[in-house]
Amino acid sequence: MLLYFCTMQRSESIPVQKIPDLKSKLVEFAREFELACILDSNAQFYLNRGNYSYRNYDLIAGFSYVSSGSDNINDFNEFRRINNKDDNWYLGYLSYDLKNELENLSSSNNDMLEWPPIFFFKPDIQFLLINNVINIKVNRSDVEISELIDCLNLYEISQANPSPIHLVPRISRREYISSVNKIQEKIQKGYIYEMNFCQEFFNHSTIDPYSVYRNMNLHSPSPFSVFFKYIDKFLLSSSPERFLKKVNSLIISQPIKGTAARGSDRREDQLLKNHLTGSVKERSENIMIVDLVRNDLSKIAQKNSVKVEELCGIYSFPHVHQMISTVSAHLSTNSLNEIIKATFPMGSMTGAPKIEAMNIIEEYESTKRGLYSGTVGYISPGMNFDFNVVIRSLQYHASKKYLSYLAGGAITALSDPEKEYEECLTKIYGIINAEQKVNYA
To answer: Is residue 109 classed as helix, strand or coil in its secondary structure?
Structure first.
């Protein structure tokens, strides 16, 4: 069902009911392309969430081929090609190791995933879902939109669950705890106040990334879920965290720091939620990162415009409760390069002070993060954008048959190494046991 393109641009809006099981069929549609990006807000689960929503689209999906991408962005400096006069959408990512181009940093840890540091593409075919209406844009196609709809409706989606995912830790529990103790020694000596320390769970195995993502998004729907395909590399993400959103001159960041497991029943669930709300440690972690975000935004903000809209709000997801704050500002620049240089990587995944934390991360982590703690999102006409934080995510290199999941948390002077390790397991549990969804939130 391969589609061949010639230059043309058309669009049409139709009720989503004309394409039953649209989300699943778009994931299946991605099999036909080298490049695919599906950004799913799972809006039906996250309505009326106060400051946390800020959504403009229920779903954005784009598909293309590498060979049709003369306008692909492969270098950070090429962001300058995207400006106010550009009437196109771009979908893509910034990997964590883009930090090495933005700052005087380096990475020598093992890299089995091999993501390029940055990649954005203009979709040949794009879907924008808003309030049960899907807008289909065909930018370089001799295929009629009606034929495209017919093709999607022909897909039959298997209801069978994919095989269980088996992952093994890159480092032992003892090694993890030893590293946390050494990081805390650096905190005591004043090198840093807080650091996000991650460990990898991995396996050499073959999976079907399309069915795995569908299953993840069915059982663990998150407001910044992503399916991303770059030739033979896949990101399957159930992220609950926003990195940055720009709406004209307004910029919004919503860092997450503070995690608690869901309870086995409603009473236990509320107790765990209350404990997270009152935790001095978790609040101090969150507030430190809020201060870091305020400082980052102040570099690109109009004077006196940075404000904390919500501090340490508690939000519930299928497998965890999270502590989330919202920081906003009015921009003094519209330059995408300047905005990213001032804010990336996000403080919630690095630490404070940010540069020194990233140096220490390289010292104690054993593998490159790849897209983990990077960001995926869109840039729309007019230079508005919305980027997530890549957490709660599987990365898969199909050619190498290599599957990776990273999990971590904020290490502070108050951290209990054993509990930090258990928090990593809590975060991975929602991926490898996605069918165990909590329904009583």
So the answer is: coil
